[in-house]
Amino acid sequence: MRNKEGMTAGLRVRLLRETLGKSRPEFSALLDFDYHRLSNIENGRARVGDDLLERLCPMFPELTHWIAYGGDISQAAIRESSCSMVRLFAAQIDAGMAPENSEFERVFVE
Questions:
Q1: Distance from C-alpha of 107 to C-alpha of 109, rounded to nearest angstrom
Q2: What average pLDDT score do residues 31-51 get?
Q3: Per the count of CB atoms within 10 A, which of 10, 18, 58, 72 is most buried?
Q4: What is the pTM for the complete model shown?
């Protein structure tokens, strides 16, 4: 599913992974998710399904809606998250570590 900026859920998963500084093998191991399926999702050859969302939601609860549907991300919510991976994501964004041309500037709200 594409959001209003034309970004697919698979691309948002890829941006999440890259912002965290994880390789695809590292991220698939972290999620206990098939590497090849993750590759297909990130490259637009497969859709994000319930199987991946079931792995991502517990680790990234404040980012679940953004991953699945796009929209805004609350900076305050991710900075104050009880989930360490979400706080790491927030720290990487605050440090300017988002991938180039990543569209993140448009999705953050205070």
A1: 7
A2: 96
A3: 10
A4: 0.88
Token digits of residue 4: 């209003």
Q: Identify the three-state secondary structure at position 73.
A: strand
Q: Give, in order, the Cα–Cα distances in Å from 80 to each of 25, 30, 44, 70, 86.
A: 28, 22, 32, 21, 9
Mean pLDDT of the chain: 88
Q: At 108, which helix (H) or strand (E)?
A: strand 108-109
CA dist 31 and 54 (Å) reads: 10
Which residue is it, tokens 């399926």?
A: 37
Q: Which of 1-10, 15-24, 97-106 is modeled with the greatest confidence?
A: 15-24
Q: Structural domains in the chain?
A: 9-109 (1.10.260.40)
The pLDDT value recorded for residue 5 is 59
Q: Over the stretch 58-71, which tens digit does the pLDDT of each residue have?
A: 999 999 999 999 88
Amino acid identity of 21?
G
